[in-house]
Amino acid sequence: xxxxxxxxxxxxxxxxxxxxxxxxxxxxxxxxxxxxxxxxxxxxxxxxxxxxxxxxxxxxxxxxxxxxxxxxxxxxxxxxxxxxxxxxxxxxxxxxxxxxxxxxxxxxxxxxxxxxxxxxxxxxxxxxxxxxxxxxxxxxxxxxxxxx
Length: 148
Ligand code: FES
Description:
Elements: H1 5-37, E1 49-54, E2 62-68, E3 71-77, E4 83-87, E5 98-100, E6 105-108, E7 113-115, E8 121-123, E9 132-138, E10 141-145
Antiparallel strand pairs: 1-10, 2-3, 3-4, 4-9, 5-6, 6-7, 7-8, 9-10
Bound molecules: FE2/S2 (inorganic) cluster.
FE2/S2 (inorganic) cluster binds near residues 90, 92, 93, 111 and 113.
């Protein structure tokens, strides 16, 4: 029995639709995988200063971790009421440090690294002091500034 041109067209259409469906399915599966494997470029934030806190927000002998240029930084209010700011990236293996009010140290929980309120290493494995930032009070804002 001979095929009519209309049957061939229907079969071709069915093949085309099946192929298109499979291509769409493959795209649905592989596109998210590709987006995961090749993440979009992240813009480097290079702000020279940031408002880390408001005046009155922090009690003496307290600390606050905030983001500065996309990286953690720490603002400490000393027991005497002065403000100090440092990179919160530990100089050992880059864990985020925190302030421990009960001992008055900046502390890294990863390997028990201790820093004083000038960022200097007191104990533990960190090889260098924390990078220090400038702090100024402008009206209601505590502004942290990266050194030039
Ligand atoms: S990462 Fe901070 S002490 Fe190891």
